[in-house]
């Protein structure tokens, strides 16, 4: 098995097996912007509130129970 070096990439017609990381996900949480954190917190609050509106059949489809949905819906929005 031949090791492919970076300098060989230009010559070889090989697609690298890595994908670029999104800039926002590459940063550690402490370095994200305040607006980014607020956006994520708002989305968590909204999606958790949607859990309370799902019926038992829909909860079964996503693989959680009514108790687990209630526990998740009652979490504070700032907790991941």
What does this molecule look like?
The protein has 80 residues and is an all-alpha fold. It has a domain at 41-80. Helices cover 51% and strands 0% of the residues. The chain contains 5 helices and no strands. It has helices at residues 6-9, 23-26, 34-51, 56-62, 66-73. Helix 3 (34-51) runs antiparallel to helix 5 (66-73). The chain is elongated.
Order of helices and strands: HHHHH
β-sheet strand percentage = under 5%
Ranges where pLDDT stays below 50 over 5 or more residues in a row are none
Shape: elongated
- Report how far apart the termini are: 43 Å
Q: Helical region count?
A: 5
Mean pLDDT: 77
Which structural category do the helix and sheet elements fall into? mainly alpha
Reported for the largest beta sheet, the result is: none
Helix content: 40-55%
Task: Compute the CA-based radius of gyration.
Answer: 21 Å
Count the E strands: 0
Features of the shown structure:
80 residues, mainly alpha, single chain
Summarize the structure.
The chain is mainly α.
Layout: helices, strands, pairs:
Elements: H1 6-9, H2 23-26, H3 34-51, H4 56-62, H5 66-73
């Amino acid at each position: 098995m031949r090791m492919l070096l970076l300098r060989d990439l230009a010559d070889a017609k090989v697609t690298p097996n890595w994908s670029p990381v999104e800039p926002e996900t590459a940063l550690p949480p402490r370095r994200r912007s305040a607006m980014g954190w607020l956006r994520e917190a708002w989305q968590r609050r909204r999606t958790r509130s949607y859990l309370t509106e799902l019926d038992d059949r829909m909860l079964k489809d996503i693989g959680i129970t009514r108790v687990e949905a209630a526990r998740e819906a009652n979490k504070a929005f700032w907790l991941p």
